[in-house]
Amino acid sequence: MPQFFSNKRLILLLVGMIFLVALISFSLRDRNHASLPEQLIKDVVGFGQSMFSKPTQYITGVFDNVESLLNTYDENKRLKVRLEDYVTLQASVNDQRLENDELRKIVDKEEDLRAYNPIQSTVIARNPDQWEEKIIIDKGEIHGVLENMAVMTAQGLIGKVILTTPYTSTVELLSTQNPNYRVSAVIAGDQEVFGLIEGFDEQRKELILKRIDNEYEVKVGQKVTTSGLGGIFPKGILIGEVTEVTTDDYGLTKLAYVKPAASFSILDHVIISKRTITPVDGSDGENTEADLREAEGDGS
Amino acid sequence: MIRILVIAISVLLFYLEPIFGLFSPIELNNDFYVLVPRFLIIYLIFVSIYYDRKRAIVYGLFFGLLYDVFFIDIIGLYSFIYPLMCLVASYTVKYIHQHLLVSSILTLLLVAVVELLLFLFYTFIGIKTMTFTSFYQHNLIPTMIANAVFLLMFGWAFKYILLNRFNQKALLLQK
User: Fold this and answer.
1) Which of A51, A130, A136 is the closest to B34 by Cβ?
2) Domain span at A172
3) Set of chain A residues whose Cβ sits within 8 Å of the Cβ of B23
4) Domain contains A160
5) B97 touching chain A per CB within 8 A
6) Is some CB atom of chain A closer than 8 A to the CB atom of B8?
7) Cβ(A261)–Cβ(A240) below 8 Å
8) Is the pLDDT assigned to residue B29 strictly greater than 80?
9) pTM
10) Least-confidence region, from A104-108, A165-169, B21-25
């Protein structure tokens, strides 16, 4: 290697290294906002990507259909057993919905934390190097997607939007190890118990629900849903089921392990929930809590 | 025709990577195995071995930048690693035989180096906390197997196309 490290090359190498480190640290600092050239690249690449991924999904869809056709007989038997239960459940749900509407009319309350407009979208890519749990979907700002919106599949919550461009958006999945990733959740039992989903246990493949008040009792098997109090998520999206309850490191609050209801491994179609009630800049995710602080200021 | 093919294959592989990424992680006996498709860098290393080092580095820079912006939002990671691997491959190949088997093994080694560099980077900046053994078992080995299969299937085709293009260009230069 005599010529390789000539003076000129060495200087070039050093300058390159400095430039590289500067570039990396610059882009690490501000990862949740895409600058204009970045947005442009993302949209162009995203367009090409959807050209490729949609036919693939069609083909895998055909295989899935064949597979489900083969399982039809077994499935039919199982479903028939549940059909009768379903009819009674449907009747009682209808009844309760009507009653709920009437009661809402009486108290003159139109808005509901639970209500949301679904935006259907297709997953066009999964971060191929999989160091971070991210997927890219084919709906963006033009379609009304905003940062921090909840993303789910038919099974339950899978993540939230962390970055949007006009035609694509990036979703960070619940299974991330990002310490700033929080979801305000509630354990639905006889009474509602609040907590925050913070972190994911890699070994157990389960979410960690922290900051549950010690006074409340939490049982294994209870369902965990979003609380809607984080500011942007609608209320009542299923997150998972409690599998174990312990106390946290300091013994002040309880901590529960939650088995996620949705599977994160193979994702193709997802739903973004656009809450109908006005979103506030609350405490979910990277929010600044500006609205909350303002309210506090008004009060004092 | 064959001139366009060289760039067309790299565009195709760039778009195919995330599609294969959709099938991963694979669950086996309650353990998740991550298969990372590294088709593009395999192809680029072949370009630098059999065709043109400079061109491979330029492609590596371009696609690395696209990869950085579109997928990981850290600019400078892949756009540094891709050209570096092409450079290393082209320097190494001067000292070894250019047989397909040898260059395949070299390519696989470099893919492992890419994975290792990324592991070091991500654990260093603290996005992922992972022990080396877990990385070795759940990421590196499955990834190497998947990419070895890919290389076995398409390595000879890459070599054929690139050598053809190389000869074509050499002929043009002679005239």
Assistant:
1) A130
2) 115-277
3) 266
4) yes
5) no
6) no
7) yes
8) no
9) 0.81
10) B21-25
Q: Which amino acid is at A90?
A: Q
Token pair listed for B83: 């050209």
Q: Can you tell me which residue has the tokens 């209808």?
A: A94
Tell me the pLDDT tens digit for each residue of A21-60: 888 888 887 777 778 888 888 888 888 888 888 888 888 8
Q: Is residue A236 part of a domain?
A: yes
Look at residue A284 and tell me whether its pLDDT is greater than 60: no
Clarify whether residues A180 and A203 are in a common domain: yes
Give the CA count within 13 Å in the CB-facing half-sphere of A63.
5
Assembly ipTM = 0.80
Chain A residue numbers with beta carbons less than 8 Å from the beta carbon of B128 are 131-132, 177
The verdict on A89 and A222 lying in the same domain is no
Residue A79 shares a structural domain with residue A203: no
A173 and A257 in a single domain? The answer is: yes
A108: left (phi over 0), alpha (psi -120 to 50) or beta: left
A173-188: per-residue pLDDT in tens?
888 887 778 888 998 8
Report the CATH number at residue A232. Answer: 2.40.10.350
Asked if B128 is an interface residue toward chain A (Cβ–Cβ < 8 A), one would say: yes
Angle between the B141-174 and B2-21 helix axes, to the nearest 10 degrees? 170
